[in-house]
Amino acid sequence: MAPPEFKITTCLRSDAILLKSEPNKQYAVSVGKANKFYMLRLHVQRMVTAAEVFKWPEAQKLGRLELIRALGNHLKSKYGDSYMKDPLKLRVTLSSTKSLTITSTPAESVSLSTLFPQELDDLLKAPPTGVLATFRILISPVPSKPTLFTTHKTTKRAQYDEIQSRIPSSSNNSSGTTRLATEVLLCNEEGDIMEGCITTAYFKRGGGWFTPASNSGGNLGTTRRWAIDTGKCKEGNVKKDSVQVGEKVILSNGVRGFGWGVVEKLETAPETEKIE
């Protein structure tokens, strides 16, 4: 049988600042032990769950010790004794035969309160308690079809690439701040927000924070799992039409941690046929 044409993947942060993080100890190889990898245990669980869904029996055997050894070997091979110096983004791919491939690139420095906020509302406060906006947010007018490749992160990302390619590079930036990264939120055919192309989204509704429910078809990311498990948010269906221009939305992923952005109007809408 020919191997699958895709691999399971996850991206996580390596950062010496995490050695000082009490919350991160709960996600170490040995629970309660300091480590420099952001929510490591959740990344392993995420990949193993995907392997179960894709029916890859060998990949399902991936363990935390195996991953941390592979990460350590990569860092020492590429960076030598200086591998602890600066924060890094680590991209891990897992094949159906349990083969691991790891690449790394520099990551932006952030605070521990960005990686493990006490409450999501704290992020919107003025620094130093909160953080400055890091994204301008657009909503794709093109519906996306939920699949196993939107629920689980893999190297098969044509659907996301297609959405991003349809957003005009000259689309309106009402904030006037070109330094902000652009994030595009996906929505399904029922009009439910699914996720961002590279982040999980959180919306303030009725006095609390909600992240799109798993039945919307979006990715089941690590920071999303942490936010739900620690009571920072609840799952709920968020309709595209309920999201307003100017609304502040919190976004998170396994490299940047938590941040936020403001929803802007997409001035030039692309063709609106469904993306599969």
Largest sheet geometry = 8 strands, mixed
The total beta strand count reads: 11
Question: Order of SSEs, N→C?
Answer: EHHHEEHEHHEEEEHEEE
User: Could you tell me the mean pLDDT?
Assistant: 91
Distance between the termini: 26 Å
Strand content: 15-25%
Cα shape: globular
Detail the poorly predicted runs. Answer: 170-178
Strand order of the largest sheet: 6-5-4-11-10-7-8-9
- Helical proportion? 10-25%
Indicate the radius of gyration in whole angstroms: 19 Å
Number of helices: 7
* Structural class based on helices, strands and sheet pairing: alpha/beta
Describe the structure.
It is a single chain. The chain starts with 7 loop residues before the first strand and ends in a 13-residue tail after the last strand. The chain has helices at residues 22-25, 40-53, 64-79, 112-115, 148-151, 158-165, 222-229; strands spanning 8-14, 88-94, 100-106, 135-139, 181-187, 193-196, 200-205, 208-212, 234-236, 248-253, 257-263. It is 21% helix and 23% strand. The strands form 2 sheets. The chain has an 8-stranded mixed beta sheet with strand order 6-5-4-11-10-7-8-9. It has a 3-stranded antiparallel beta sheet with strand order 1-2-3, covered by helices on one side. Helix 7 links the parallel strand 8 (208-212) and strand 9 (234-236). It contains 7 helices and 11 strands.
